[in-house]
Predict the structure of Large ribosomal subunit protein uL4.
Amino acid sequence: MKVEVLDRQGKSTGRKVDLSDDIFGIEPNEHAIYLDVKQYLAHQRQGTHKAKERAEITGSTRKIKKQKGTGTARAGSIKSPVFRGGGRIFGPRPRQYDQKLNKNVKRLARKSALSLKSQDKAIYVVEDFDFDTPKTKDFKSFLQSLGLEDKKSLVVLGGLNKNVYLSARNLKRSQVVTNSQLNTYSILNANSIVLLESAVEGIESNLTK
């Protein structure tokens, strides 16, 4: 699949890059996408939630009232979950939410997500560029030249580029990652994917192993 290469100002360079049909043109597997996104979101959970249960509540152990003759239900402890301030029944405990997923399924999910974006014509290829210093204004100008200033965008770099990364860090609608950090959730969460030329080779190398 041939895609036109744009420059930093959003103008055509007169060149085209060939995107592999094995990655950007497959039949999307929705179940693989579901499993990968589910695992990603599960891994974002810290699992540090905790509520005190009956045995962890500080309080008197004396019997509150006599067993019979009060006309109400019997009660043996102020720490009972039925009383205000008592322990919580089956409260949350710290736990790990990690999920295992086969590498081939994760790879298929990323291919499927990229293919979906390709079908929607939401993938742009831009020649490699850099900023002299980190500047949000310069990155916003770059997005405006592509018509993406008001859309969620994912910019994929061929390698670590500190100036570009720092320039985009304050923008809520834009995310910058390297080709090795690319994941299914980020691809689907963005309206448009901007691939730098050097990232295309890295993506194809990572997803054809």
About this structure: The chain has two domains: 2-29+100-207, 46-96. The chain has a mean pLDDT of 93. Strands lie at 2-6, 12-18, 123-126, 153-157, 174-178, 192-196. Residues 103-119 form the longest helix (17 residues).
